[in-house]
Specification:
Layout: H1 8-38, H2 41-59, E1 61-63, H3 65-68, E2 82-83, E3 87-91, E4 100-102, E5 107-116, E6 136-142, E7 149-155
Antiparallel strand pairs: 1-4, 2-3, 3-5, 5-6, 6-7
């Protein structure tokens, strides 16, 4: 008589191997999903910096989103803050009042921010997205020469792994 099929040991070995693969692959998959969602923040910040630089060089002032022509992802126009499925983009002064501020002595803690609206690994969800609580932000400071500005980008420590080079934007 001929035996057909697998033994119990062979089936159990296959199940154990599949379990090990699943234990390794699933966390890696969720990490990649979070990184792909967070990847929209860098280009949005880079666009803001490029437009602000152009405005600064032309007018010697720091301008609002509307004045520099920046349209946040998900926004209908340059004068409104934007919201996508994953993030809310928020503005700081002078963007809040729609005006511009002279470069001389200009220093603002935050002028641009992105707050995540969905869970991204350990990166905390922002229940009430505002510039003060944004996980990603950009600040502007006037240079000592009086006719240019410097940017500093910051990302909260629990979101750093998703965008490891964000703090180098504008440098």
């Amino acid at each position: 008589m001929k035996k057909q099929g697998f033994t119990l040991i062979e089936l159990m070995v296959v199940i154990v191997i599949m379990g090990i693969l699943a234990a390794v692959a699933v966390p890696k998959l969720f990490g990649m999903i979070a990184k792909s969602k967070a990847s929209e923040v860098g280009p949005a910040a880079g666009t803001y910096i490029k437009l602000q630089d152009a405005y600064v060089s032309e007018s010697n002032k720091v301008g609002s989103w509307k004045l520099i022509g920046y349209v946040a992802p998900g926004a209908k126009s340059a004068s409104t803050e934007g919201e996508t499925t994953n993030f809310k983009y928020v503005a700081g002064s002078p963007a809040v009042d729609g005006g511009a501020a002279a470069i001389t002595g200009y220093s603002d803690t935050k002028v641009w921010g992105a707050a995540n609206l969905v869970a991204l690994n350990d990166c905390a969800i922002q229940s009430s997205p505002a510039l003060a609580t944004a996980n990603w932000s950009i600040s502007i400071t006037a240079n000592s020469n009086g006719n240019s500005v410097s940017y500093s980008a910051a990302v909260s420590s629990d979101c750093q792994q998703l965008t490891p080079t964000f703090d180098k934007i504008g440098k």
